[in-house]
Amino acid sequence: MQARNIISLVIGSVGLLGCVDNTHRNEPTASAISANVTQTLGRSATGSGQIISGAAPRRITFAAVRHADGSVSGEYLLNTPGVEIPGFFTRIHASIICFRTVGNQVRIGGVVDQSSDPGFLGRDMAFLAEDNGEGFNNPADRLSPPFIPTGIENFAATFCEESAQLSDPPLYPIENGNVQIR
Q1: 18 occurs within a structural domain
Q2: In terms of residue numbers, what domain contains 172?
Q3: What is the pLDDT of residues 27-68, one digit of tens each?
């Protein structure tokens, strides 16, 4: 009886190994977003956590995915609970339109589609995330608050395409969270 169970386990494991999809591992991705942003390889970036920026804690959650056709989709949500200051980001939701991985960092851009401040609706936004690995011996992952400029056309796509700039938003250590760049 035990030998039959072991044989079934081995056959099932071999069958599962044959189901691994490596077809996109070394292929460059096509740029299919509206702004024709050139992207480096990277299939997804996800994360959530709390950062302290200014005097208020900000809870950030995001997910960005590159699909097989090269298109990008995802969401970004920022909540600053208990803060009701005009012009201060209290709640923002954005649809992700691009991302680009650079080492252990990812540059992500989107368009604000919900906000507690209507002045941000429809504006491009961008932020940075940094994956510093797992475990107690690694430094905390980091996130930036969103950068939402006024009057810069195609800001999100340009942000995704650029390399690191001195004008990039600052990165803050995540408390109670994690970033994964794959």
Answers
A1: no
A2: 35-181
A3: 333 233 333 334 445 699 999 999 987 777 889 999 999 999
Contact call for residues 108 and 127 (beta carbons, < 8 A):
yes
Domain-located, residue 21 = no
Q: Quick one: tokens of 167? A: 């004008």
The pLDDT of residue 74: 97
Instruction: State pTM to two decimals.
Output: 0.72
CA distances to 31, 68, 76, 97, 156 from 35, rounded to whole Å, are: 9, 18, 19, 9, 9
CA distance 148 to 88: 11
Token digits for 144? 């930036």
| Cα–Cα distance, 44 to 63 (Å, whole number) | 7
Tokens (6 digits) for 86: 């005009």
**pLDDT tens-digit profile of 148-163?**
998 888 999 999 998 7
Report the domain count for the chain: 1
Question: Could you write out the DSSP letters of every residue in 30-60?
Answer: P--STT-----S-SEEEEEEEEEETTEEEEE
